[in-house]
Amino acid sequence: MSRKPNLALVGATGAVGTVMVGIINSRENIWGEIRLIASPRSAGKKITVHGEELTVVALSPEAFDGIDIAMFDVPDEVSEIWAPIAAERGAVAVDNSGAFRMNPEVPLVVPEVNPEQAKNRPLGIISNPNCTTLTMMAAMGALHRKWNLKELVVSSYQAVSGAGAAGIAELASELAVVGKDASLGTNTDDVRAALAAAGNDLSNSPWAHPIALNVIPFAGSLKAGGHSSEEMKVRDESRKILGISDLKVAASCVRVPVQVAHSLTVHATFENSLTPDEVREVLGQQPTVKVVDDPANHQYPTPNMVAGQDPTFVGRIRQSLDFPNSIELFVVGDNLRKGAALNTYEIAELVAKEF
Predict the structure, then answer these.
(1) Is 13 annotated as belonging to a binding site?
(2) Under a CB-based contact definition with an 8 Å cutoff, are residues 54 and 48 in contact?
(3) What's the pTM value of the predicted model, to 2 decimals?
(4) Known binder of ligand: residue 15?
(5) Whole-angstrom distance, CA of residue 142 vs CA of residue 31
(6) What is the dihedral of CA 171, 174, 179, 183, to 10 degrees?
(7) What is the pLDDT of residues 168-181, one digit of tens each?
(8) Residues in the active site (predicted)?
(9) CB 335 within 8 A of CB 135
(10) Other CB atoms within 10 A of residue 224 CB
(11) Where are the domains of the chain?
């Protein structure tokens, strides 16, 4: 790096943007200028980054002047408009939304898996994968390099924070009601009635059903064949990141009453034979993967353990009983960190090495 590139963070005052600021502050300062950008209503706010109080500026074309790398932590519709504008103004746009993930001219990058793709950006945009896919990618990328992945069967147990601030608020609101009555939970209608009596009729909830004391076997929007958008992302993004166009993937995505950290059960089938001990050895060598796998002593990853941490945690590693060349895993990752802000920032660090 012959000079320090200038970095912009678009969406600096949002939920993921706030996590991103914390990540920036926790890592080495490799940047020249750091510019914080948000909507006009947030302009003027003060945020401290690497000991310097910075003023948030309003999103505009001119906000990208002099910027080398612009990270976007904003909704799809905002990225669709503004990431190309940032690229036109000379910045490499690193986008955390779903706007460009499946665009063939936009690389979908996980630095531990396909860092070389970050340079293949004809539109000047690099995309960050969905948080569910990202939860397992560091682990699956390492195993694929060793044994050649052929099939994935995945079930996700997704935290409410995956639905944004509204998801977190809804769970807290419902828990405040149902926590007062230990008898609730045996009947969904009883929970609905208790919530309605407390003034919560679910009209402002991200979900059609209560999430407290419940699991909802659907995440995202409905797509063809009864699949959800989250399930389609797991398949399509896994194929693109790993570079396996014909990878067989079956996914079921479930929302659970957990604030932070997505969990996945993974059934992975490979071309070559492998053992649990070999899997533990390979994953143990990965700097961003932590193996916690001693079920005899109740040691395995849980969302409560993982929330707030950067690594991907893997446990319950075992041979499939009836499927050759197959391994079962339980993978947990903080969906706001590695699942969103951290991977975006690691892509930016990757691009920064070009300067």
Answers:
(1) yes
(2) yes
(3) 0.92
(4) yes
(5) 30
(6) -120
(7) 999 999 999 887 77
(8) 131, 262
(9) yes
(10) 6
(11) 7-128+341-353, 133-159+217-333
How far CA 159 is from CA of 265, 267, 317, in Å, comes to 14, 21, 22
Distance CA 9, CA 335 (A): 19
Q: Which CATH architecture has domain 133-159+217-333?
A: 2-Layer Sandwich (3.30)
Q: How many helices (H) and strands (E) does the chain have?
A: 9, 14
Residues that are catalytic: 131, 262
Q: Is 286 annotated as a binding residue?
A: no
Mean pLDDT across 151-162: 96
Q: Does the domain formed by 7-128+341-353 have CATH 3.40.50.720?
A: yes
The answer to whether 14 and 45 are in contact (CB under 8 A) is: no
pLDDT tens column, 345-355: 999 999 999 99
| Helix locations, 32-130, DSSP H | 76-88
Q: What is the DSSP letter of 27?
A: S
Is 339 annotated to bind a ligand? Reply is: no
Judged by DSSP in three states, 232 sits in helix
